[in-house]
C-alpha cells in the first residue's frame, strides 16, 4: 500500500468506537486499533476452491517476501470501507467494483513482531474469480508475485495437520519460480483466530456456489 507514515488513520477502542486519529507509525508502535481493507481472491476449478496469496515485495518495510492476503491495506481516517477497493487495483492491477465482492465481515486481527503491534479491525471481503490465470499487473514495489493453493491444503496447514504445502505460481517477477513449498513461517503472522474465521467463511461460500 503506497501510504506515507505521516498520513493519519482513525483510532478505535476495542469495541470499535472511534477515539481519535494518529499516524500509522505511532499506531503500530503503540498497538492502537485501526481499520484495514482485506480482499481475498478465490477461484473454483471443477468445484475445488483455490485461494490466492500475494508475495510481498522484498523492499517492503514490514514482512518482505512473506505470503499474505491477496490484496490489503490501511483505511485512512477520512476513508470508508468502499475506498479500500483501490488496494486491489494499486497492488494487483485489477479493476473491480465493490458489488463484485462478497463480505465476510469485520474481523479483529492482531499481528505481533517485536515492537510492531498491528491491531486491526479488518473489513474482509471475497472475490470469486471466473478465471484461474487472472491477468494480474503487479505493482513491483508492493507485490513480487501471486501464488495459489487449494483451499483445503491451506486449511490443513493452519490446522497444523501438515507442516508444509505447495503454492503454484500464477505470476512472479522471479521467472524461474513455478511452484514453491511453504510452511506457516513463510506467511505474514496474522492471528490464528482471524485466519480460521476467514478460511471457514470461504469454505462455506464455496459450498453455496
UniProtKB/TrEMBL annotation:
Give the InterPro entries listed for this entry. Answer: NUDIX_hydrolase-like_dom_sf, NUDIX_hydrolase_dom
Entry-linked CDD domains: NUDIX_Hydrolase (cd04692)
Q: Where is the Nudix hydrolase domain?
A: 32-171
Q: Which PANTHER family does the UniProt entry name for this protein?
A: ISOPENTENYL-DIPHOSPHATE DELTA-ISOMERASE
UniProt protein name: NUDIX domain-containing protein
